[in-house]
Design goal:
By secondary structure, the protein is α/β, with parallel strands linked by helices. It is built from 11 helices and 12 strands. Strands 1, 2, 3, 4, 5, 8, 9, 10, 11 and 12 form a 10-stranded mixed sheet that branches. It has a two-stranded antiparallel sheet with strand order 6-7. The longest helix has 18 residues, at 139-156. 46% of the residues are buried.
């Protein structure tokens, strides 16, 4: 055959394939989500997320040590309080679960980078992400409490805050309150493009954050919409967001790509609890090779345009990167 161009030339050996890779994955770009819970001596596995745990503050350092050993340096904290009320007061309490976890984590592992999820859903008795006015989440008063929560996290030691509530204007509210209190250098990673997704089911069990009535479709995005995601991303950048997140990841790679092509800030993608649970369940049945699927999902998100990847498989991915199986 008379062919000048043969693409297979660059696929001949593993060394050559690695040399010409278009997409690179680094452990420094991984963020591990961790659940911290009120109480003592608690390290309980989450039934729908095999291998993931809820940790009390006294047990959390053991989990952080494992992250350090794996080569993961970024942690996202989610709090599960003992007490919930209508206004989610434990979200912004000085002695709240996340605030106490931050102080202890900073004391024992000061070199890790701590990001906090800023929302009220884990803290409200009704499970919605803000204050209620009848059966509707009241946007503007909720923003005030979200900003108060973010400030309390930063005062306790958070390096970055990540509002996940999807209230209009919450990035601006947080940015203004942080700046007024001297935290002008603290970045905000906004869950800007967050869809009302069925992929969140296991997380809601893990965090005890399922709404007691209705759903979150009046504030999280309709998964049919693509342009709306661009609108949300650009609005949050205008309000001061430093990083834009797309959530979930696997079913929204087209959105990740379009957001990455549009904005001039880093883009994060969150591989959520449902994605994790499906991989674990299929692997347990012997239907897939878990390690290869984990790598392929991660590369898919990075190839789509994300530069930051939140995943419950962060420790495994860091190991695969060390082994040269991905990267």
């Amino acid at each position: 055959m008379d062919m000048v161009i043969r693409p297979r030339r660059l696929r001949k050996t593993e060394t050559l394939r690695k040399m010409v890779r278009e997409t690179r994955v680094s452990a420094s770009s991984l963020i591990y989500p961790m659940f911290v819970i009120d109480g003592e001596g608690i390290e309980e596995e989450i039934p729908s997320m095999e291998g993931q745990y809820r940790y009390s503050v006294d047990r959390m350092p053991y989990a952080l040590e494992k992250l350090v050993q794996a080569g993961v340096s970024n942690v996202m904290l989610f709090g599960i309080p003992a007490h919930k009320d209508e206004c989610g007061s434990q979200a912004y309490a000085e002695d709240g679960i996340v605030q106490r976890a931050l102080r202890e984590a900073k004391r024992q592992f000061p070199d890790l980078y701590y990001i906090t999820d800023v929302c009220l859903c884990e803290y409200t008795s009704h499970g919605h992400c803000g204050l209620l006015k009848g059966d509707y989440v009241d946007n503007d008063p909720t923003v005030d409490l979200l900003a108060k929560t973010a400030l309390s996290h930063v005062q306790a030691g958070a390096d970055m805050v990540a509002p996940s509530d999807m209230m209009d204007g919450r990035v601006l509210g947080i940015r203004q309150l942080l700046d007024e209190n001297g935290y002008v250098e603290t970045p905000i990673m906004s869950y800007a493009v967050k869809y009302a997704s069925a992929f969140y089911g296991p997380f809601r069990e893990a965090a005890g954050s399922a709404p007691s009535f209705g759903d979150r479709k009046s504030y999280q995005m309709d998964f049919h919409n693509r342009k709306e995601g661009i609108k949300e991303a650009l609005l949050d950048i205008d309000e001061g967001a430093d990083i834009i997140m797309v959530k979930p990841a696997m079913a929204y790679l087209d959105v990740i790509r379009e957001v990455a092509d549009t904005v001039d800030v880093p883009v994060a993608a969150y591989s959520v609890s449902g994605e994790y649970a499906m991989v674990k369940a299929a692997a347990k049945m012997g239907w897939i090779e878990e390690d290869r699927i984990i790598c392929e999902m991660a590369v898919g998100a990075f190839r789509a345009g994300c530069g930051v990847y939140l995943t419950y498989f962060a420790k495994e991915l860091a190991q695969y990167i060390k082994e040269g199986r991905i990267g």
